[in-house]
Design a protein that fits this description.
Length: 452
């Protein structure tokens, strides 16, 4: 389908982070965009302010009957009245991943996949391309702090797309440059086994267009099975990789480092966001800019102004008295990287983390990993499991994690109890983490820690 010719689009689940990026894509091109979502959020309010008609009741009477295209997210339940009405009346109904497929077929596509890091790397790439005047159309799974957006437009026929493994959506994409960050087990409710999920990532690399390039983290499990017309590896500091960092130093909660590639070198690159994993993410993004032939000096200048992504090692308070970091981490490996980085950056402070587990199935499947990662913190507070799309599972609770923890300094609190804890303890280094609704507490916590 020619996405540029569509003049009227209806979104079922318009408020999702990936769906809203597509909604903005069509709206910026002059299409009439409207849609449904279950609840009003800050993001849906912004979409409405940009001219999109949005409602929050599943009511066929509120549908756009004149739409040329209906886009839905796989998170929508099968009994959704509006979605089924469109299907029953033979409207063109497609998943979000189908539309992204058309975009990758029509544009020079850079896609970023992996269990961890894909939002940060895709946003960093898109930011660098925009700030160096190369230009791109960005479809992101997070909100850029610099632009307060998850989508931006360019006349350059290049797209940067976060490739989501949930529901195997990323297998519909056909990239020119495919980035692969990790293939750790997740979404086992979809894939069944780690081996099946790994097979999907291998298939992702087989979708690269002829003459395209795979940029993959060095040393991944089953790396020899990954396919790409050309392959480049990257790593944080392993010089066996094609691209890696040297001379990393910490500075004011960020980093200065050099990047070494085959036939090129980028010195004194400055990253103002925390986390050594974000240095590695930046290495991947810088490597992509060099595949595109962008001047290193322009990349250096752009990276120094990059402020990161909301809820990705985001400093909400950063003073002499308190450091408060909020992060989307919802997988054991992400939690480990988060805690390790925070403790390394602020070694003299007691590290307290509040974690909200996301999904009963993920808690069940990865409980040992969560316990091991959380043990790295000095003190741990856990909230009840955020169910998202799932119903409760018998025997699966937050205690499924705490019963496996070796660190005795842990407790389970309500959201109200967490706020009261922060008010009373006023921790010097505090982290909130999780992909549920723990972020709704961040404004209150920030306000408490900023008080004299």
């Amino acid at each position: 389908m020619n996405v540029t010719a569509i003049k009227r689009v209806y979104f079922v689940g318009i408020g999702g982070i990936g769906m809203s990026a597509l909604a903005r894509f069509f709206s910026d091109r002059g299409a009439v965009v409207s849609g449904y979502d279950r609840t009003e959020t800050e993001l849906t309010r912004k979409l409405a302010a940009e001219g999109m008609a949005i409602h929050y009741t599943d009511d066929v009477a509120l549908c756009d009957k004149a739409t040329e295209l209906v886009v839905y997210t796989p998170a929508i339940p099968k009994d959704h009245k509006e979605l089924n009405w469109y299907r029953d009346n033979n409207y063109p109904v497609y998943k979000r991943s189908d539309v992204l497929q058309w975009i990758t077929e029509a544009m020079h596509a850079i896609t970023v996949a992996g269990t961890h890091g894909k939002t940060t790397i895709s946003t960093t790439i898109a930011y660098l391309l925009r700030e160096t005047s190369y230009g791109c159309n960005a479809f992101l799974g997070g909100i850029s702090v610099n632009y307060e957006r998850n989508y931006w437009h360019s006349d350059n026929n290049t797209a940067v797309i976060e490739a989501d493994e949930y529901d195997r959506s990323f297998l519909k994409l056909f990239p020119d440059i495919a980035v692969l960050t990790s293939i750790d087990p997740d979404h086992l409710d979809i894939y069944g086994t780690p081996a099946e999920m790994e097979a999907a990532f291998i298939q992702y690399t087989k979708n690269i267009k002829p003459g395209g390039t795979l940029l993959v983290k060095h040393g991944l499990h089953r790396q020899s099975e990954l396919k790409g017309p050309n392959t480049i590896t990257y790593s944080l500091q392993n010089d066996a990789a094609d691209v890696y960092a040297e001379n990393i130093t910490q500075e004011h909660g960020g980093y200065i480092f050099d990047v070494v590639g085959k036939g090129w070198r980028a010195e004194q690159m400055r990253l103002r966001i925390g986390g050594m994993h974000n240095v590695e993410n930046s290495i991947a993004a810088i490597a992509v800019t060099q595949m595109l032939g962008i001047d290193i000096a322009a990349v250096r200048s752009a990276l120094a102004t990059f402020r990161g992504i909301k809820r990705r090692f985001e400093y909400l308070v950063h003073t002499d008295e308190h450091v408060y970091i909020d992060d989307y981490a919802h997988h054991p490996e992400e939690l480990a990287a988060l805690i390790k980085s925070a403790k390394r950056l602020f070694p003299k402070r007691k590290c307290v983390i509040a974690f909200q587990p996301h999904l009963f199935s993920r808690t069940r499947d990865l409980a040992d990993g969560f316990a091991h990662s959380l043990d790295m913190a000095d003190e741990v507070i856990l909230l009840d499991i955020y169910p998202a799309r799932e119903l409760p599972m018998e025997g699966v609770t937050t205690e499924t994690i705490t019963s496996r923890m070796a660190n005795p300094a842990h407790t389970v609190l309500s959201k109200e109890g967490l706020v009261e804890y922060v008010r009373r303890a006023r921790p010097a280094l505090f982290i909130t983490a999780g992909a549920g609704d723990i972020d709704k507490l961040t404004g209150t916590i920030k306000e408490i820690l900023q008080q004299a």
